[in-house]
Amino acid sequence: MVALALQVKGITKRYPGVIANHEVDFDLRKGEIHVLLGENGAGKTTLMNIIYGLSMPDEGECYLDGELIQITDPNLAISRGIGMVHQHFMLVPTLTVVENIILGVESLRPRTAFLRQLSLLDLASATKRIESLSKQYGLEVDPAAYVRDLPVGAQQRVEIVKALYREADILILDEPTAVLTPQEADDLFQVMRALVQPRGDKHGKSIIFITHKLKEVLAVADRITVLRGGRVVGSTMPSATTENELAAMMVGREVVLTVPKGPARPQEPVLEVQDLKVLDDRHLVAVDGVSLEVRKGEILGVAGVQGNGQRELVESLTGLRKPVGGHVRILGQETTLASPRRITELGTAHIPEDRQKHGLVLSDPVKDNLVLNTYYRPPFAHRAVIAREQVADNAARLVREFDIRTPSIETATSNLSGGNQQKTIVAREFSRPIQLLIAAQPTRGLDVGSIEFIHGQLVKRRDDGCAVLLVSAELDEIMALADRIAVMYKGKIVSVMPAEEATREKLGLLMAGVS
Amino acid sequence: MDMRIIIGLFALTLVKATPLTLGALSGVFCERSGVVNIGIEGMMLTSAFTGFSAAFFSGSALVGIAVALATGGLLALLHAVLCIRFELNQIISGTVINLMAVGVTGYFNRVIFSGRTVPGVETLPRVEIPLLADIPFIGPILFQHQPIVFTTIILVFLVHIVLFHTPWGLRTRAVGEHPRAADTLGIDVFKVRYINVVVGGMIAGLAGAFLTLEAVGTFEKLMSNGRGFIALAAMVFGKWSPVGAFGAALLFGFAEALGVRLQIENIGIPYQFLGMLPYLLTIIVLAGVVGRSTPPAASGQPYRKE
Fold first, then answer.
1. How many H helices and E strands in chain B?
2. Do B184 and A86 touch (CB under 8 A)?
3. Which residues of chain B lie closer than 8 angstroms to A52, CB-CB?
4. Does the model's ipTM exceed the 0.90 cut?
5. How distant is the Cα of A166 from the closest Cα of chain B, in angstroms?
6. CA distances for A15 relative to A18, A43, A74, A230, B34, angstroms
7. Which of B29, B31, B170, B239 to mutate to test the interface with A (most CBs of A within 10 A)?
8. Among A130, A177, A386, B67, whose Cα sits 20 to 30 Å from the Cα of B142?
């Protein structure tokens, strides 16, 4: 019998209107990497929050080392050796690495330890321990650096060290590769392998690895459990399965993993960018002399690790951020300093990176969100009055056409799932004649079904003669859709190549700044 | 200019900077933990009144100070409950406290003291620190003051140590920047905020005590006179750090002292204009002329557990 580090039985968790987990059984052996696979909303995060004590199950039991235990809060989980690396890093940017790591378990200078919370911190000994942990597992971190200055890969290492510093034996990694370059992901897998190695007569760490990326599952898993709609639909070994089989388990039907798409027929340029220079919110140069061109009938993919100026590039192209240098021309017209409305009226559609912040007015109903950029003109407005019927008709039509799952067109968009929010945006942007489509991270956080739909729409637009600029941190997405690929690194386009010439390795290196 | 005038000007700067520094420290405590407190002005004013009344009736300045601290703490607790428990807009809660302070102090001042002839208490005694006070130039500027001035200087460095070198400070900064991160590490975000806001309120209370018990020895209507807001400007200017805020408060204090000084010198500028100096300076500072600074990221946002 293999020793179990953790076992949960019959976990059920209900939220108003949804059952997030339904009688879930899951176990973790000592020294194994157990992948928990499932789409967004499948209940992976709910299950992990229960194990980590962030929420309590309505039913079910949890065993740690064979002992029945109720994990009521993260403190208890931490003290029982459970560590979690959250999908959105739980690091305080303005604190240093060592401060982040010791937060909550601060070591004190012995002579001042009389009043715990007001005693002096002992950063030196904490630093020493961090350095020894980082050497032991090959997790390179600089304890004195401020977290805000670190690239995401390094921030992730800090998160892992943070868990190890708390003497975690069970590590939960929630979608850890979502923000990494392929090389960084490979490094992470190596670290994971090192972590589960037995040390002396002790078991190695046990890891729960949450993901929806099929390739990595097969690369690192010892065992795989698939969740769908809050239930466990199956468990398997990497040797006994394939990507397609896993995808089908995850979605519940056969899935086309590749986007069907014919060759591009690029024509005249629609978007021309020349030597563009844009500052970020901190007034630092974010886009540093970018020149590019997107032609009618092609998809130009901009690859790159998040935070290399893509956001600022997109914002400046759509008029949301004024560039400090260079030129942008859409259909031959100068739009460098043009207003978003003028750019929209030239036939530009924009799918923003942050759909909740910039794509929708969350508190407003679906029907109003569907006319956000056309409400002021006929047929939706007569002089200064909104034509309610037209707005409603338009909404009803688009909801049907784009299969937006919403209780009604009056529902506030905040109540829609991520996929349906994104479909609302796509429906709005595609419901008028467009020449140029700028899509930033269009499928982030979406389920496979919605991703299929959005990808299909992008290709369809291209074939209809639209110029498409696709900015994405998902390399697979870029490679599946783009006709030409530009790689952005530190505000510069470091390379542009036809999609046929691109490989994961080549792009990954460019994304990491190795040329 | 006469050396004595310069010494006097600098010493007065320190005195004028005291309530501003305390107000700014109060703000630092609150905002570093993620709660905006624009009610410092009201907390000062109310504490000035209650502290004075307590001292007046008990005949003891210490009782007065204790009551002032308690008043500030209680008002801050109200602010904390409204902002943390009930997730009320923090600006509105602060405004409520400010308006309430004006009404309550004005009303009770009339009810309690209007019949009497100019009530007053003896101000806190001036202390000369042995040896240090005798250093030429520096001695009279720094080491011949009343107790709250000294306390304030000590507090600046104490708050600095607490904020940057203790677990409590680390947790406070984490909670003000990224409460969810702190929560996932088992830190009680609400507790940290409650305690910081209440401690901040007590410091504002001390500023109130300074106004009545140390500076003038009597209560006047609206006597806080916008100092709570200037203190917030000093906090911003000082980039939410105690030492920085102290530096900024000294600058504002200097402007105020200079106004007073020039008025005495009678240089022909109407005193109203000289009195404007600190406020003008506040506007210039807040307009971002002297470099922008970023507040704690979660400042002003109620925290809600998932």
1. 12, 2
2. yes
3. 184
4. no
5. 10
6. 5, 11, 20, 12, 29
7. B170
8. B67
Question: Within 13 A of A507's CA, how many CA atoms are on the CB side?
Answer: 31
Of B180, B183, B186, which has the smallest distance from its Cβ to A78's Cβ? B186
For chain A, state the CA radius of gyration: 25
Residue B162 has its nearest CB partner, among A91, A95, A118, at A118
Q: Distance from CA of residue A81 to its chain's centroid?
A: 27
Using a CB–CB cutoff of 8 Å, tell me whether A75 touches chain B: yes
For residue B20, which of B292, B262, B282 has the smallest C-alpha distance? B282
Partner B, chain A 48-67, Cβ-Cβ below 8 Å: 49, 52, 54-55
C-alpha torsion angle, residues A125, A126, A127, A129 (rounded to 10): 90
Q: Which residues contact B79 (CB under 8 A, 6 or more apart)?
A: B35, B37, B39, B90, B93, B94, B97, B197, B201
Chain A partners of B296 at a C-beta cutoff of 8 Å? 94
Of A73, A89, A106, the CB nearest to B170: A106
Evaluate whether the domain defined by B3-115+138-286 bears CATH number 1.10.357.
no
Give all domains of chain A, ordered by start, each with its CATH number.
4-251 (3.40.50.300), 256-347+434-515 (3.40.50.300), 356-432 (no CATH)
Count of A-B CB contacts under 8 Å:
76
Model confidence at A312: pLDDT above 90: yes
Q: How far apart are CA A494 and CA A111, in angstroms?
A: 54
pLDDT in tens, A10-24: 999 988 777 889 999
Mean pLDDT by 10 residues, chain B (306 residues): 84 95 96 96 97 92 96 97 94 96 93 74 86 85 90 96 94 95 91 96 97 90 92 92 95 90 80 83 75 80 81
